[in-house]
């Protein structure tokens, strides 16, 4: 009982203050970590969506390039036929 009376007489219980501040610090650190992790996750999700769009764009570009190659091949055939016709006439 003497220890309690002494602590009450002093007016400040530093152990209780230290424990309370320590707990508040830990809770604050956990909340800050969770918020930072959440925003990092959102950033990664946005990057993943952008990467999916780029992948789709790349696939479309390959398809369009193949179509262009086919059209150039047909055009080359027509030009060759016209050149042959001009040689026969000329």
Any overview of this molecule?
- The chain is mainly alpha-helical and 90 residues long.
- The protein contains 2 helices and no strands.
- The chain has helices at residues 2-10, 14-89.
- The longest helix is centred in the middle third of the chain and has 76 residues, at 14-89.
- It is rod-shaped, with a radius of gyration of 38 Å.
What is the helix fraction of residues, given as a range? over 70%
Proportion of β residues? under 5%
Distance between the termini: 125 Å
In round numbers, the mean pLDDT is 90
SS field, number of helical segments: 2
Q: What layout of secondary structure does this protein have?
A:
Layout: H1 2-10, H2 14-89
What key attributes describe this structure?
rod-shaped, 90 residues, mainly alpha
What does this entry show, briefly?
The protein is mainly α.
């Amino acid at each position: 009982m003497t220890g309690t009376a002494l602590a009450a007489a002093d007016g400040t219980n530093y152990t209780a203050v230290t424990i309370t501040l320590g707990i508040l610090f830990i809770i604050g650190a956990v909340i800050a970590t969770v918020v930072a992790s959440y925003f990092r996750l959102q950033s990664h999700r946005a990057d993943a969506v952008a990467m999916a769009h780029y992948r789709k764009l790349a696939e479309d570009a390959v398809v369009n390039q193949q179509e262009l190659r086919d059209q150039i091949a047909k055009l080359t055939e027509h030009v060759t036929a016209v050149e042959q016709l001009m040689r026969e006439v000329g």
